[in-house]
User: Fold this.
Amino acid sequence: MNSLIPKVDPKKSQLGRRLESLVRKALYDFHLAKDCKRMAVALSGGKDSLTLLYLLHAISGYGFPPFELVAIHVSGEFSCGAGIQPEYLSGICESLGVPLVFRESTQTLDTLECYSCSRERRKLLFDAAKEHGCDRIAFGHHRDDNAQTLLLNLLHKAEFAGNLPMVHMQNYEMTITRPLIYCSESDIRTFSKANGFARILCRCPVGQNSKRKQVDQLMDEMEEFFPNVRTNLAQASLQYGSEKANRP
Assistant:
């Protein structure tokens, strides 16, 4: 195996065990793996999606019925998330025994826009997941993403709603899950650095100046006065943000 491919076992560190425990809690609280035989993972190659892949691989069959994993990577000239060599992702998935499926985005700099890009990427992901026998797909959205979404919706649309742990997409016959919903970005970043897969950065020129980025900077400023702002917003989102949170 290529020596550059990280060998990650979450159980070998205190932080890894804590992250695994939080993912287990999310799977249990929101039934994210209930009756699941095969789960797709949206694998951008960034710290969040790779952490998710390693944790789900470690959890399957241990405390939960075993479920197969299928990783799906959407590449392209300008795709949201990490710019990464396919061989690197292939090596990681091969080391875990997880099939890896590639799809290509058609976005160019002239057409690049968050809404249309997101719709195309999701359709590519959903179609690939269905083609490989998956009825749900796990995304690497974490606690801080949830806090950003809540504040963005509140300020922009006067809606008190964050990221739902599970969303049934009836039009696509697919279910989105977010197993990292309890995990902080700082813990994920530390875990990825410790295990050697944190060097990839987002290469989307639009995303660097997005409203989401501005909201994240606003929360940085708020943390000077309210240190628990991200934790509290994320908890408020799950508790009060939507009646559609699908908590059994």
